[in-house]
């Protein structure tokens, strides 16, 4: 079974509300001749939760990208300044934010013969925001951000 087929089966388990252990158990029972690693299932679950799109495209999707690219190249060759003046692009990225504490904020006084106090593990990420930027030849047109499941705010 290839990677695309496994991704579909793992997504099926995800959409059915199974956790990663239940998904692994079901896949092992239904497809005993194939081996799916726990880490593979966990990785796909993370991608599904984050809403990441698969980079596996159908032939039609690939052809559409080729056609669009060829059309853009024709327009650039015809009138490059006008094309760049009208062209708008965008990018999305998850921005993680952290709760930072300086060493001074977390320091404690101890006697000379006392051991240093034990510290808890630092929090890796306090949250994340999906940032989307739109720009053209003149600069940024719009910036959107979305935190968790909240609504999109235009700034």
Question: What are its keywords?
Answer:
44% helix, alpha+beta, disordered C terminus, flat
Structural overview:
The protein is an alpha+beta fold and 155 residues long. It folds into 3 domains: 3-50, Arc Repressor Mutant, subunit A, CATH 1.10.10; 57-87, no CATH class; 88-97 and 123-155. The protein is 44% helix and 19% strand. The protein contains 6 helices and 4 strands. The protein has helices at residues 3-15, 20-30, 38-50, 59-78, 80-86, 103-106, and strands at residues 89-97, 127-136, 139-147, 153-154. A 4-stranded antiparallel sheet has the order 1-2-3-4. Strand 3 and strand 4 (153-154) form a beta hairpin. Helix 1 (3-15) crosses helix 2 (20-30) and helix 1 (3-15) crosses helix 3 (38-50). The radius of gyration is 24 Å and the shape is flat.
Write a brief caption for the model.
The chain is of the alpha+beta class and 155 residues long. It is 44% helix and 19% strand.
Task: Write the topology of this structure.
Layout: H1 3-15, H2 20-30, H3 38-50, H4 59-78, H5 80-86, E1 89-97, H6 103-106, E2 127-136, E3 139-147, E4 153-154
Antiparallel strand pairs: 1-2, 2-3, 3-4
Protein name: Mos1 transposase HTH domain-containing protein
GO molecular function, one term: nucleic acid binding
Pfam families: Transposase_1 (PF01359)
């Amino acid at each position: 079974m290839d990677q695309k087929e496994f991704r579909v089966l793992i997504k099926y388990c995800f959409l059915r509300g199974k956790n990663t252990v239940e998904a692994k158990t079901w896949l092992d029972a239904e497809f005993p001749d194939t081996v799916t690693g726990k880490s593979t299932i966990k990785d796909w679950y993370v991608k599904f939760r984050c809403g990441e799109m698969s980079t596996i495209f159908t032939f039609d999707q690939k052809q559409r990208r080729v056609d669009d690219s060829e059309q853009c190249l024709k327009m650039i060759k015809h009138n490059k300044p006008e094309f760049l003046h009208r062209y708008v692009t965008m990018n999305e990225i998850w921005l993680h934010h952290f709760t930072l504490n300086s060493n001074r904020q977390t320091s404690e006084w101890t006697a000379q013969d006392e051991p240093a106090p034990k510290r808890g593990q630092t929090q890796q990420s306090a949250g994340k925001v999906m940032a989307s930027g739109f720009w053209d030849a003149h600069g940024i047109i719009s910036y959107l951000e979305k935190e968790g499941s909240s609504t999109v705010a235009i700034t």
